[in-house]
Design a protein that fits this description.
The complex is a heterodimer of chains A (110) and B (113). Chain A is mainly beta. Chain A has a single domain, classed as Immunoglobulins (Immunoglobulin-like, Sandwich). Helices cover 0% and strands 60% of the residues of chain A. The termini of chain A are far apart. The relative contact order of chain A is 0.35. Chain B is an all-beta fold. Chain B has one domain: Immunoglobulins (Immunoglobulin-like, Sandwich), CATH 2.60.40. In chain B, strands 2, 4, 5, 6, 9, 10 and 11 form a seven-stranded mixed β-sheet that branches. In chain B, β4 and β5 form a beta hairpin. The mean pLDDT of chain B is 87. The chains are: A mainly beta (110), B mainly beta (113). Chains A and B meet through β4, β9 and β10 of A and β5 and β10 of B.
């Protein structure tokens, strides 16, 4: 059975801190790994990673995939209170189905 | 133990047909959702539903309708399917009032030919 495990489950930091969120997976017919930021409504798409070792970057957020060790990390530098959310990792199989991790709940305190 | 399960996983159908996708959650959650994933991987909410309230995204065509026989199920009915309905549809659930994570099903890949 496909499995996606995120850690930590929750994280509390102060503004300005840097955080690293982890996602490990076991999935057949891997196609891509996706990161979403979930606040009140629909998750917001952040990144899609398909190749190992190539960092994707968007502002203070960056992510990288290791297909050999089967994990990905999401880094957020200089965190702000607006970064508080649940961050979801999902792995896409070749059939375009996703298996979601349980999420990491990030709380950024002022 | 699958928390949120959708059936079928794949659905290929012709234009004009009516089809349903089923969703069940065994988490005891009060609120369930349907999302459509577009070709750019964005998830767009279609409906959220609990026992008392159905919230519809106004951009969703009325050919789409949710049906909830009980708290653990929220099925998606689609009438008169169109080519543009081809996408992956995700069901999710969470606790009522919780502004945190929702648990997602694996998705149903719908292809309209």
């Amino acid at each position: 059975e496909d499995k996606v495990v995120q850690s930590p489950l929750s994280l509390v930091v102060h503004e300005g801190d840097t955080v690293t969120l982890n996602c490990s997976y076991e999935v057949t017919n891997f196609r891509s790994l996706l990161w979403y930021k979930q606040e009140k409504k629909a998750p917001t798409f952040l990144f899609m990673l398909t190749s190992s070792g190539i960092e994707k970057k968007s502002g203070r957020l960056s992510s990288i995939l290791d297909k050999k060790e089967l994990f990905s990390i999401l880094n957020i530098t200089a965190t702000q209170t607006g970064d508080s959310a649940v961050y979801l990792c999902a792995v896409e199989r070749s059939a375009r189905q996703l298996t979601f991790g349980s999420g990491t709940q990030l709380t950024v305190l002022p | 133990d699958t928390a949120v399960s959708q059936t079928p996983k794949y659905l290929v159908t012709q234009m004009g047909n009516d089809k349903s996708i089923k969703c069940e959650q065994n988490l005891g959650h009060d609120t369930m959702y349907w999302y459509k994933q577009d070709s750019k991987k964005f998830l767009k909410i279609m409906f959220s539903y609990n026992n008392k309230e159905l919230i519809i995204n106004e951009t969703v065509p009325n050919r789409f309708s949710p049906k909830s026989p009980d708290k653990a199920h929220l099925n998606l009915h689609i009438n008169s399917l169109e080519l543009g309905d081809s996408a992956v549809y995700f069901c999710a659930s969470n606790r009522k009032g919780a502004n945190t994570e929702a648990f997602f099903g694996q998705g149903t890949r719908l292809t309209v030919v």
